[in-house]
Amino acid sequence: MKKFLSVLMPLLLIISAMFSLSVFSFAKDPVKPGDVNADGKITISDAKCVLKYAVGLTDLSDAQFSMADVNHNGKVGIEDAKIILRCVVGLQNIPGVEVGSGDVFDDNDGWVDIDNKT
Predict the structure, then answer these.
(1) Helix axes 44-54, 78-88, angle to 10 degrees
(2) Which residues of 18-40 are buried (b: 16+ CB within 10 A; e: fewer)?
(3) pTM of the model
(4) Domain 30-118 maps to which CATH number in 1.10.1330.10, 3.40.50.1820, 2.60.40.60, 1.10.10.10?
(5) What is the pLDDT of residues 15-53, one digit of tens each?
């Protein structure tokens, strides 16, 4: 019985470590500034959420408010939406998110080609 336990315990430790690593590796990336809808991408949809909030059509949770305030002035408004849109088309970076990082997309999950106006 001691021999069985001496083999079983290390095996259980290895299995639990493997499970922990696999769960950790599939954990969702942290939300980045500008990703208001927390889908892992910064898109026109995020700017739309900000605009709806700015004109009083919707509310934002505390987390959404924090992600929407990309100019860090403590308010969420049209200027924040403008910055998010400029980021989407590759004209401006949001602090913490670099254009070309793979986090910024148009709503078709591809880069907006500003030369062809697509």
Answers:
(1) 170
(2) eeeeeeeeeeeeebbbbbbbeee
(3) 0.63
(4) 1.10.1330.10
(5) 665 554 444 444 455 678 999 999 888 999 999 999 999
